[in-house]
Amino acid sequence: MKYTSVDELDRFQFHDAQIQKIVSSSMDMIWETSLVNVTTDNTQNQFNNDMCTNFAVIVFENYHIESIIFGASEAWRDGVLVASREARTLLPEEYDSILNETPCSYCYILDMELLSDGQDSMHRSVFDITGGAGTYYLTFSFTKAIISWDEYSGIAGYEDPKWKK
């Protein structure tokens, strides 16, 4: 791919990025994504604005899932609580099925937080993801995050002057 960014997760905006496919092996987890925004402080962005990618591949090397937690939720209708669900932490044997099920229809990253930046050669992050499996927090560690893409599709949507005030 034309552009490659290594260990710069904090120099991307993932809100509303779509995960189209997740493939994992015993060593690496690979996400095929779209609509990932590359910020101006990223080493691969020479533009004056945050830029959007049509398609990007994210490789998390030597990953280890620490937890997958489905958040508590409530459904209200006309001011009346009609359903609720407690937060639930998945068992490790459930991880693969959730990750395989996640991009089945739609799958968006709501947010990403880098929890540590590579001290002791490990990075740690949490992704807030909503998809076919529901909405959950995926916390994992990895030794390297590599994001590659071929082209920019234009400025990030939030950079449009109509949204800046």
Give a concise summary.
The chain has 1 helix and 16 strands. By secondary structure, the protein is mainly beta. The strands form 3 sheets. It has a 10-stranded antiparallel beta sheet with strand order 1-15-7-4-3-12-13-14-8-11, covered by helices on one side. A 4-stranded antiparallel beta sheet has the order 2-5-6-16, with no helix packed on it. Strands 9-10 form a two-stranded antiparallel sheet.
Shape: globular
Beta-strand share of residues: over 45%
Strand order of the largest sheet: 1-15-7-4-3-12-13-14-8-11
How many domains in all?
Answer: 1
Return the string of H and E elements.
EEEEEEEEEEEHEEEEE
Q: State the major sheet.
A: 10 strands, antiparallel
Question: How far do the termini sit from each other?
Answer: 36 Å
Helix content: under 10%
Radius of gyration: 17 Å
Structural class based on helices, strands and sheet pairing? mainly beta
* Unreliable residue stretches: none
The total strand number stands at 16
**Average pLDDT:** 90
Query: Helical stretch count?
Result: 1
